[in-house]
């Protein structure tokens, strides 16, 4: 589904990513883990076009998408959530989720001005899809609320609904449970399991190791911009290089 070939990204000569290569298989959950500053968000930014790699190639469904602008990559079927929430505070919850369907409107400016019945029909269908996504995340009763007044946990779920509403071929989730309490984390964990069961391909950045070990099929470990391990959760958990770099020597000795 996605192949990364030697991705590098240097900031002022300092490597945030240094020749990172791995593949994200279709229909599986791949977790990307690593200590703070390892380069995880930079890598997601390079995949989605929010940033450009200084070396290497991003190949999605057989096509080289390296350096394409973010809106074109999004149209190819890659959606994401952000580590620092990016909901539109003044838009309603429903409109925030409809933003995840902008590429599917299919209307030209002329059609939009003429308000043809076919266009109104299409808009109704998109709203129904957005409402169904909100229901999946238990947000249906807050559809008309401005996003600004939602509690943090709800805003996280609005982002998830927006990222998943278009049924993207690849879903990139940057710390979806960061800042959530235990109940909210469990709720999002259930959602992620449902997405996995539904055949979604997911690249998940997460520091919550319990969640990662529970839902990932494959774990990729970054450390100081390098890929130091790729394997199943069980393989990675007992890899001494990973334990030393990420989990700490104490656990390695346990
Ligand atoms: N725009 C930038 N300018 C300069 N340095 C940057 C920039 N973005 C990231 N970096 C640096 O690149 C390195 C990797 O950062 P990145 O945010 O990708 O790490 P991360 O693994 O996502 O960390 P965390 O788990 O804390 O989110 C860090 O040293 C960071 O300071």
Set down the secondary structure blueprint.
Layout: E1 2-11, E2 14-24, E3 29-33, H1 40-48, E4 55-60, E5 63-64, H2 70-75, E6 78-80, H3 93-98, H4 109-114, H5 117-136, H6 152-164, E7 170-174, H7 182-197, E8 201-205, H8 209-215, E9 218-223, E10 226-231, H9 233-237, H10 240-247, H11 249-253
Parallel strand pairs: 3-8, 3-9, 6-7, 7-8
Antiparallel strand pairs: 1-2, 1-4, 4-5, 9-10
Keywords: ATP-binding, Nucleotide-binding, Transport
Protein name: ABC-type branched-subunit amino acid transport system ATPase component
Domain ABC transporter: 2-249
Overview of the structural elements:
The chain is 40% helix and 23% strand. It is of the alpha/beta class. It has two domains: 1-77 and 168-254, P-loop containing nucleotide triphosphate hydrolases (Rossmann fold); 87-166, no CATH class. β9 and β10 (226-231) form a beta hairpin. α5 packs across α6. It is globular. Adenosine-5'-triphosphate is lined by residues 11, 16, 34, 36-42, 83. Residues 11, 16, 34, 36-42, 83 line the site of adenosine-5'-triphosphate. This is ABC-type branched-subunit amino acid transport system ATPase component. Residues 2-249 form the ABC transporter domain. GO terms for molecular function: ATP binding; ATP hydrolysis activity. Keywords: ATP-binding, Nucleotide-binding, Transport. It holds the Pfam family ABC_tran.
